[in-house]
Design brief:
The protein is about 65% helix and about 0% strand. The chain has about 170 residues and is an all-alpha fold. The chain starts with a helix and ends with a helix.
Length: about 170
């Protein structure tokens, strides 16, 4: 389905946002998911769980048929809230969630409607909300990784790579 001009830049931004998340995930191990601040804040895994669940969580309100396309990787009994066996499995859930969000937004725009109850002025606001939400949690994750002793050169490399994606 053709993407209307009004969505092209928003979709491109969402794709860049996904690349930033992928770059972060590419630096993580399953052990990294347990890093926390030690004073009750989210762990790395809990931040990632909150990000990945945001897509199907909101989709279930605005477009349940699209939410059904996203695998559930949340496990409330896990200390990290994630029920994944690998970072690759988590990445696949992010990919499926992003695709479902884009499909839902495109369908709503093509039908000339907003999402009832939320994002009513324009469904693309859902994508913008995802980007802001993801950015907040990724910042928290990077702070936790610094506190956990992630070397400065590794942190700086990731920062340089991810900022560059926004300036292409």
């Amino acid at each position: 389905m053709e993407v209307p001009p009004e969505l092209k830049i928003v979709f491109e931004s969402f794709d860049r946002n996904a690349r930033v998340t992928r770059a972060l995930l590419d630096t993580l191990t399953m052990e990294d998911l347990n890093h926390s601040d030690g004073v009750g804040g989210f762990s790395v895994g809990q931040h990632l769980a909150d990000i990945v669940e945001f897509r199907p969580g909101w989709l279930s309100r605005v477009s349940p048929e699209h939410a059904a396309k996203v695998p559930n990787v949340i496990d409330d009994s896990s200390p990290t809230w994630l029920g994944v066996k690998s970072i690759a499995e988590l990445q696949a859930a992010f990919d499926a969630g992003d695709a479902a969000v884009k499909e839902a937004v495109l369908a709503a725009v093509n039908e000339g409607r907003g999402f009832e109850g939320v994002y009513e002025t324009h469904p693309a606001h859902f994508i913008q909300h995802c980007i802001v939400h993801d950015s907040h949690h990724r910042g928290q994750i990077l702070a936790l990784l610094r506190q956990a002793g992630r070397p400065e050169d590794v942190r700086r490399k990731l920062e340089d790579e991810t900022w560059a994606m926004w300036r292409e």
